[in-house]
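Bug #77: duplicate submission created two jobs. Keeping one. Sequence:
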Amino acid sequence: MTATPSTPSADLFCRVIDNYGDIGVCLRLARQLTRHHGWRIRLWLDAPEALAKLEPTAAFQNGVGQLDGIELVHWSQTPPALAPLDICIEAFACDPPADYLAQLDPQRHLWLNLEYLSAEDWVTGCHLLPSLQANGVPKYFFFPGFLPGTGGLLREPGLLAARDSWQADKTQATGLLQSLWLAAEALAHWQTPGSRLINLFCYPHAPLAALTQALAQSPRPTLLLVPEGVAPSLAAGRTGNLHIARHAFVRQEAFDRLLWSADLNLIRGEDSLVRAIWAGRPLLWHIYPQTDDAHLEKLQAWLGCGSLAPAVQAAFAGWNRAASSNTVPAGPSPASSQPVISWPALLDAPAWQDWQKQARHDSDQLARQADLGQQLVSFCLEKLAAR
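Kept job's structure:
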């Protein structure tokens, strides 16, 4: 599609800092702008191997490539000399190449910094504020968020209808699990009447012992799905009524469907959080620990946006009980300082039914807001039209 004033083009810059979260967000945004808004997108990334983990079909030759209509550029130490497209979107203040920025023209180009996701109140006051840069081009701060007055959350058109259709037919989840090449014993365990499915995607310091012990002792069978490289201390196989199954990383669409299929999603990272919210199922977010417990303030701000019961909110505190550090804790903190999750109380009726209703309610409420892609497109078109 040829770029016109109504269908602009954009360079989207991504540095892969936190495993797959950065590239995950950027790939979803690039796809949405390309598929649903007709934009020409050039995705710059510094770690093609991270993209290849999510999309094995992504390939580069001489530093460039293609994926689903998206142009790919390997952002190496000597980035290619490409003229800027209409819009420069830098994800998470990643600082595009100096030679590229020097070519930006305040009369022709628009520059956005796609910020990190936050539910804190101050975000609404900073969303869409400009900051004049050394090259004379203002950089606008675009904040994703949960509150009115922010940029909203990434959500593709038709996503929730597809989710509802998927969740209404359990045979689709069965087919998905079969595609993961799980052991026959694991599939049989999940197909036991009354069984539940839990996804586990956490940081290494998650308090797993209490979780696995409770699930093993529960009268209800549980299949716990764990991606490769996550929670290496957990061995695949069955203990009591818990069966742990390992699986390879999956593409983004399959990841969404895994979240839709599960009864409970234990997730980490911003991209996974948003996708778990759209699943409309109970979740616990393992937020990356920061110095001085700044991550817990962010967590509390997010919890304040929803309707979760106090016991569930306490479970979030227990799941994020690591010591204050921006590195993985070397060992457990004193038992007296650690909130303890009562897994049986959370996962049994009536608390479980209440949690299910609250999760779906909060998902539906957030879906009333305009999605991030649409808000970003509207803002860019308005700014470009005013020139």
